[in-house]
Amino acid sequence: MSERAFTDYLDRIGDRTALYAAVAAHTGARRVLYPGSYLDLAPSYVWADVTYLDADARAARAFAGPDATTLARRHRRPPGQPLITFVPGDYTDTLSGLPAAAWDLALSLYAGPVSEHAKRCLRPGGWILANNSHADAGLAHLDPDYRLAAVIHHRSGRYLLTTDHLDQYLRPRRPPHPTRDQLHTAGRGAAYARPALAYLFRFRHEPGAR
Question: 207, exposed or middle or buried, with CB in 10 Å at 0-12, 13-18, 19+?
Fold first, then answer.
């Protein structure tokens, strides 16, 4: 597969480079883990070191050659040589074989309960960016190892990250909030009274610690 596979996919889902840039500026993360990435190469436009995981054979073929690195280097801001690692397989299995506490940030977008499986790979004080598509924002909200740190909205073509009034988010329209079992069974997120595009959680971070 060529660079075209990556660019066609980004055209189809929408280029998330600006979203990732907003997260990068807020977190200062350097090493990024992306379970269920498929062909979303945009993280490597922003971060210099990204590990991608996916079970789809098409993703494995696309990342196997030099095209991903070539394309990412062309789009990187600031310029530089990206380090791209691809791990084939289902992240519910493959993450257990990766180094512990080695990544600063995990991405969970349309891929299921990434927050549950990525914890061993995140360093204390790390982050996870999750959306509500497959209930992972709700699962992270219920997990005592995570704390909501910011929410992201998309307005007028811009991604806006805010840390204000976080207590108003992740409140279901019809209380009570679904349990973990209910979210797993439903396979989709709860309807929240004040939704956001994505939610940024801090992992095992002690208040006042850096």
Answer: exposed
Q: Does residue 90 contact residue 167 with C-beta atoms inside 8 Å?
A: no
As beta bridge partners, residue 77 has none
pLDDT digits (tens, 9 = 90+) for 166-194: 999 999 999 999 999 999 999 999 999 99
DSSP 210: -
Domains of the chain, residue spans: 3-203
Cβ proximity of 42 and 63 under 8 Å: no
Q: Is there a contact between 203 and 145 (Cβ–Cβ < 8 Å)?
A: yes
pTM, two decimals, is 0.96
80-125 tens-digit pLDDT = 899 999 999 999 999 999 999 999 999 999 999 999 999 999 999 9
**Domain 3-203, classified CATH 3.30.470.20, yes or no:** no
